[in-house]
Amino acid sequence: MDNPLSQVKKYLFLVYKKRFIFLFSSLLVMSVIISGSFFMTKKYEASSTVFIERNMIDSLLRGITITPSMDDRIRVLRHYMLSRDLISRTLRKLDADLTAPTPEQFEGLIRKYQRATNINMRGQELFIVSLRDEDPVFARDFINALVGTYVEENIASKREEAFGAGRFISEQLTFFKQRLDEAQDRVIQFRRDREIYSTVSEAALLENIKRAEEGLEQIKMQKNEMLATIATIRRQLDMMAEFSAQNTSNPFGFAATGSGGNALVAQLESRRQEMLQVYNERHPEIVRLDARIEAILEAEKDNPVELAVAPVVEFNPLEDPIYVDLKMRLNARETEFQAIEARERELQAMIQENQAKLREFPEEKKLLADLERERNSYLKLYEQLLERQGVTEVSKQMEVADKTTTFRIVDPAVLPRAPVSIDRFKVMLLGVFVGFGAGLGLVILLEMIDGRFKDIDSLRQLGIPILAEIPTIPDPVKQARMKKFNIARYACAGCGFLVIGMFLAHDALGLGLIDRFIIDSNLDQVVAKVVRFIN
Amino acid sequence: MSRIEKALERAAQKRAAEGATPQVPSPPAMTPAATASSAVLSDYAAFEQVPHPAVANPCLVTATDPNSPISEQYRKLKSLLIKMTRSEQSRNSLLVTSTVGGEGKTITALNLAITLAQEYDHTVLLIEADLRRPTIMNYLGLHASVGLADCVLDGVDVGEALVKTGIGKLSVLPAGRAVKDPVEVFSSARMAKLLQEVKTRYSDRFVILDSTPLLPFAEGQILAHLVDSVIFVARQEYTPFDKLKDALASLKSANLLGVVCNDIDGGITGTGYYGYYGYYKYPRKSA
């Protein structure tokens, strides 16, 4: 049976059983609190409202300017305003340090005002700083001085911050420019050393090698063709030389044909036709063939027998145009062959060179990449700083012109007239509740420490049979006496609660009669003396 | 109307006829039966000769208000006891004790004795075994010059010391003269013999002993071993619970029948037995 309802019933029964203890202890506590509330020190509250103003220009120039860490300042506003440094400076400004001659006392004063100062943030735009103090003038001055100091320091520090940022970025810009130049020089020097003026890629080198190899193949084919041609020409020349050695008069067997000058002419004509397919008529060989044919024909016309009978002519290879021609062609082919060989060597050298470059390429590339990376990082930083310098410059100008976020004191602290610190009515109500709470607590405590036999079930748990439960036997005389006594006690309690109710009504109506009585009879001073003595 | 009430009425009529004022006789004077032989004692009509005393003490609720719910509780207790002791006829002596003083031993013993005495079948002898603070006679508004101490120490006959109360068949053996060391009285062989005698004299008699509390004095422990059974009285919101447990533990070797819980609070709403007041008031009105 430990459900909440049974618990409530249990406590109610407990309170009923010890109702007079409950009532009188509650009354005692209530009386102490309520009478004490009349002697509580009056406190006055001074407050100042500060608006954190963000100008339109700030929104307009968002991204271009940077407001110096305003959000951070707002975030730590409470801690900064209640910092030991700011509070101590404010107190010194108000000459409050004169009332605390020793450092310990001054330290106590700082702690007191740190605790007493209340900062209430309303969103991100408004904050209210208030202080409750016995001296209304001091409360007002303190709040105004504190807020004033905070706002001044903020504006000054914001400007200083903007200037400082500009100065720092300029210094950094110079430094990084120097670093960038150095890195750039190192890249150039490296390229100059390694003869990499332009960006040479691995693929390009491979392409060059491939092209050179293709060239070499072509040259090889040309060489083979050329060698075949040269061999053929040589064979023809050898044949001609051999033939002329057997028949010195007619290397080509003209005489053997037996047709005399006509056969020779026919042979020459055939040769001429063959050459005309390649050359035109003005070619020296063709001209010479024409001259020869003409000479043979004229000679045949003049002396046809003689020619036919005795055409004895000494064979000279140099005079034979065909031989000469072949010789010339051989020479030309040999010259071309040499040229091709030279080209081949050149290409091979180029391939070797490119292959060597390719082998060294990764190492070089790495070194170059490192240098370039270094240069790029400096470049990037430099560019960023350059960009920031512009932003800083605008921000600085904004700060100088006071165009950014500012603190505007909307409502400065004024001299408080009415005491606010204690809402006596609330204190009294609180006293009533605390009194009842204390009464209940006392009753529960007494019940807890009471070791008397209360519950029959506890006896049953011991295993003892319960024979009878005899209720309280009423004794009319005793009951009558107790009734009278109880009536007296109820009357006393009722009077007590009536007085407390009167106190509450007095305060709720704001009569002030008791206050006047206390002041007139100097009771407050007596109580203050007693409190000081106890302290 | 019960026979007792009828007898009382007859006695009243007789007194009125004689024109004599009813007086509570002094023990020797009022106890002609005590001086007479046991044959006189066996005649129950003799009880009817004793006028009903004017019991004024509200605590003796079984005498002053027999229809009250509290009396009903005592009757329930009586029924339980009769049921528990019926099986053995010889187990008719009963000690009423408690942890400390002021728990209602005497009230319980008296109310139980009165309830039993009002029973048609039983005679009851209530022995005032609390020699340190005897109160039974005061509750009944009676006086006696000799009693238990005299019987044990001086050898006075029990019959001479007995006081008839006029409440049913209830006799009381008062404490008697004041003694220096009550423990010596109860630990004596004479005491045991006396108790044995009063127990066995009548088979239908209930012998109830009202003793001192268990924890402060030793008499209770001695008597617990001389009687057949023990009733323990505990008062709510009064008896220290740890001491109560100690006292109960000291009765381990005795025949403890159970505990009578006294002064039980009805709670805020006064529920419980009081809710049936209507039932109890009805016979009173009709009477």
Tell me what you see in this structure:
The complex is a heterodimer of chains A (535) and B (287). Chain A has 19 helices and five strands. Chain A has 535 residues and is of the alpha+beta class. A four-stranded antiparallel β-sheet of chain A has the order 2-3-1-4. Mean pLDDT of chain A is 81; it is low at 250-259 and 306-313. Chain B starts with a helix and ends with a helix. Chain B is 46% helix and 14% strand. Chain B is of the alpha/beta class. In chain B, helix 7 packs across helix 8 (105-118). Classes of the chains: A alpha+beta (535), B alpha/beta (287). The interface between A and B is medium-sized, with 26 and 44 residues. Strand 5 (466-471) of chain A pairs parallel with strand 7 of chain B. Chain B: Belongs to the CpsD/CapB family. Chain B: It comes from Geoalkalibacter halelectricus.
How are the secondary structure elements laid out?
The complex is a heterodimer of chains A (535) and B (287).
Chain A: H1 4-17, H2 19-38, E1 44-53, H3 56-60, H4 70-75, H5 77-81, H6 84-93, H7 103-116, E2 117-122, E3 126-133, H8 136-193, H9 202-246, H10 254-257, H11 261-276, H12 284-302, H13 304-309, H14 321-400, E4 406-411, H15 424-449, H16 456-461, E5 466-471, H17 476-508, H18 513-520, H19 523-534
Antiparallel strand pairs in A: 1-3, 1-4, 2-3
Helix pairs in contact in A: 2-15, 2-17, 6-7, 6-8, 8-14, 9-14, 11-12, 15-17
Chain B: H1 3-18, H2 27-30, H3 32-35, H4 38-42, H5 45-49, H6 61-64, H7 69-85, E1 93-98, H8 105-118, E2 123-128, H9 136-140, H10 148-154, H11 158-161, E3 163-164, E4 170-173, H12 182-187, H13 189-201, E5 205-210, H14 219-226, E6 229-235, H15 241-250, E7 256-264, H16 277-286
Parallel strand pairs in B: 1-5, 1-6, 2-4, 2-5, 6-7
Antiparallel strand pairs in B: 3-4
Helix pairs in contact in B: 7-8
Transmembrane segments (chain A): 20-40, 427-446, 487-505
Pfam families (chain A): GNVR
Coiled coil (chain A): 173-236, 340-388
